[in-house]
Design a protein that fits this description.
It contains four helices and eight strands, in the order ββααββββββαα. It has about 170 residues and is an alpha+beta fold. An eight-stranded antiparallel β-sheet has the order 1-2-8-7-6-5-4-3. The mean pLDDT is about 90.
């Protein structure tokens, strides 16, 4: 897992995940913007308009829909609302930066040349923040596999999620 940072900030109600990917920013951004690959890591897009003010509706399984509005988008950055029917509305932002090849990651590996750091911030989750940490780490595991051309089978989502949850739980204790 190329996790660079996981910060569950309860006082600020903010979750931050930074994930290193061995691909240039353009490749990662294109993959994030591709509705065909979205189903390999997040869910089935029903509506996918990534322009400012556009709507994104994703079926995460069994008609469990997340609705988002694109709040901002610029080169390698975007912000969206994030709303599930049984949760308060929240907001996510995604940004891509070039990895510093001289910077050491948490597991003391040197960043790959042309690598990208994807930083996802999720605000306004309240008591759901820790479960979202597990969920985003699992989805980013699926994203990386999809980006590498080896998508994981959907049947592995919940087993990976359970493993990540145990790892995070052990880290917090």
């Amino acid at each position: 897992m190329p996790l660079r940072r996981l910060d569950v900030n309860l006082p600020d109600d903010a979750l931050t995940v930074s994930w290193e990917l061995p691909h240039p920013r353009e490749t990662v951004w294109s993959h994030l913007q591709n509705p065909e690959t979205l189903r390999e890591w997040l869910g089935r897009p029903l509506v996918f308009d990534t322009r400012i003010g556009g709507e994104i509706i994703i079926d995460h399984a069994d008609d469990y829909l997340c609705r988002s509005e694109v709040l901002s988008v610029s080169e390698f950055e975007s912000a969206l609302s994030w709303t599930f029917p049984d949760e308060p509305s929240s907001r996510i932002s995604l940004s891509l930066s070039a990895a510093d090849p001289t910077e050491q990651t948490e597991d003391v590996e040197v960043a790959a040349e042309n690598a990208t750091v994807l930083t996802l911030e999720h605000f306004g989750l309240g008591p759901l923040i820790e479960s979202y940490a597990t969920g985003w780490l699992t989805h980013l595991t699926f994203f990386e596999a999809s980006l590498n051309g080896t998508p994981l089978p959907d049947s592995q989502f919940w087993p990976i999620c359970a493993t990540v949850d145990r790892l995070i739980g052990n880290h917090r204790n």
